[in-house]
Recover the amino acids of this structure.
């Protein structure tokens, strides 16, 4: 019955995709030929020529979407990942379609129509898939379209999986019970889930409870049992999903990739690659240029006040550690007396620090001493948002005392950051700052950057911990 339901939904999705495809193609034709946005040809090509292409497009999209796995069950994958796959598959199919049109030498098809179609089709298909998922989530919460599962492994990893699956009723996965690593404690319950047996009788339990999915969530020390378990259920018609316990060693953005058919587990990585680098760098250039142009008269006044009130240069350069542990010179307005650290050595500034000049105290309190750092951003040493950079001489002490301290250098240093907008700056807890910095790196997005910029402006530049 479950397989019949799966085939039914697959067929339904296929039909919906064909409807979206045809609608997007017709919309693109009328948008190009009759909207007037861009002047059409002197002689508008007849609709029937474009309709002829649908006979090629419908099977083509079906085959490409099938190859990209867009008709297989996606209970556990995210909506975002499905939209990305739709974009990839549609782009690939559109390129094939454009290539096929060269076979129709007697007709000239509008390139702009193909562009409109590519864009509209992705939007239509994505929206219908999101609505389809919402419908499935609704009926699954009502108890329909369910899949029954066993979890092999009763320790922390297995318990966490059960907890998360119970928190997502929209997935429609019902846990029937645990399978113990060893034939002990059978019949006992863990957080309301019963231990039904061990891997020795897992085949009988699959048949008895009508199991569709077997999750293998063995702890790292028990992975030697994995082969035996897989041998027991090798010919059972169930989906087998393995949760590797290696993620206890993950530090930043752990994930699984594939290389030529081989699974690769990444335990530590930076979120900035591909388009993410371009997006963040573009935001840095545009925003820092705007700030420097807008505040240039004000910065000139600050420079004059510094020059008139104390001997020494206007700007102060200090070595800081940035992305991948590389050292750069961070620029600030000078707020202290010249050679302020001659006697003390490298130390953090303190409240009512006697080394600060009168204008320097005001600049530090209002964070205006950091305005020249926008030049660092333009140069590429820093970003608008990121972990605050620290001095290399102090980092040598921190890295031995604070676990994972150096991981904050997986992201370019910033003028403001998630720790700062949450109040962790100055002489506050360094451990808390690291915690917030790592959260930022783990969860980076353009939206989070814009949120931090907004919170920095909204909270104001004056801070009780800035001195």
């Amino acid at each position: 019955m479950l397989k019949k339901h799966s085939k039914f939904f697959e067929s339904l999705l296929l039909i919906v995709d064909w409807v979206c495809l045809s609608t997007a193609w017709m919309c693109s034709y009328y948008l190009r030929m009759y909207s007037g946005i861009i002047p059409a040809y002197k002689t508008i090509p007849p609709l029937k020529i474009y309709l002829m292409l649908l006979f090629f497009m419908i099977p083509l999209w079906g085959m490409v979407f099938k190859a990209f796995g867009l008709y297989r069950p996606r209970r556990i994958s995210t909506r975002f990942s499905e939209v990305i796959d739709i974009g990839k598959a549609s782009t690939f199919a559109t390129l094939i379609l454009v290539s096929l049109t060269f076979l129709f030498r007697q007709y000239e098809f509008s390139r702009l129509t193909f562009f409109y179609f590519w864009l509209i089709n992705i939007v239509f298909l994505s929206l219908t898939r999101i609505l389809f998922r919402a419908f499935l989530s609704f009926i699954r919460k009502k108890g329909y379209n369910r899949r029954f599962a066993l979890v092999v492994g009763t320790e922390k990893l297995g318990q966490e999986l059960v907890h998360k699956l119970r928190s997502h009723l929209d997935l429609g996965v019902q846990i029937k019970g645990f399978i113990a690593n060893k034939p002990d404690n059978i019949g006992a319950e863990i957080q309301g889930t019963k231990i039904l047996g061990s891997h020795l009788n897992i085949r009988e339990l699959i048949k008895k409870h009508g199991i569709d999915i077997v999750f293998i969530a063995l702890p790292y020390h028990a992975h030697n049992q994995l082969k035996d378990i897989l041998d027991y259920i090798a010919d059972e018609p169930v989906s087998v999903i393995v949760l590797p316990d290696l993620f206890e060693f993950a530090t930043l953005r752990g994930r699984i990739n594939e290389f030529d058919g081989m699974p690769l587990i990444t335990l530590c990585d930076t979120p900035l690659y591909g388009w993410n680098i371009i997006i963040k760098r573009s935001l840095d250039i545009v925003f820092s240029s705007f700030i420097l142009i807008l505040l240039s008269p004000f910065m000139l006044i600050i420079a004059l006040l510094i020059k008139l009130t104390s001997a020494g240069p206007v700007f102060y350069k200090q070595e800081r550690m940035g992305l991948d542990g590389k050292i750069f010179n961070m620029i600030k307005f000078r707020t202290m007396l010249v050679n302020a650290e001659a006697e003390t050595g490298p130390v953090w500034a303190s409240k009512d620090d006697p080394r600060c000049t009168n204008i320097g105290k005001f600049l530090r309190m209002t964070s205006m001493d950091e305005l020249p750092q926008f030049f660092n951003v333009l140069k590429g040493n820093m970003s608008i948002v990121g972990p605050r950079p620290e001095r290399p001489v102090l980092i040598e002490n921190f890295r031995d005392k604070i676990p994972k301290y150096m991981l904050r250098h997986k992201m370019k240093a910033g003028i403001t950051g998630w720790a700062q907008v949450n109040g962790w700056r100055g002489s506050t807890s360094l451990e808390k700052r690291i915690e917030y910095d790592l959260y930022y790196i783990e969860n980076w997005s353009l939206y989070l950057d814009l949120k931090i910029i907004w919170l920095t402006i909204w909270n104001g530049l004056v801070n009780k911990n800035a001195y």
Q: What stands out?
A: Residues 147-249 form a domain with the Rossmann fold fold (CATH 3.40.50.720). DSSP finds 14 helices and twelve strands in the chain.
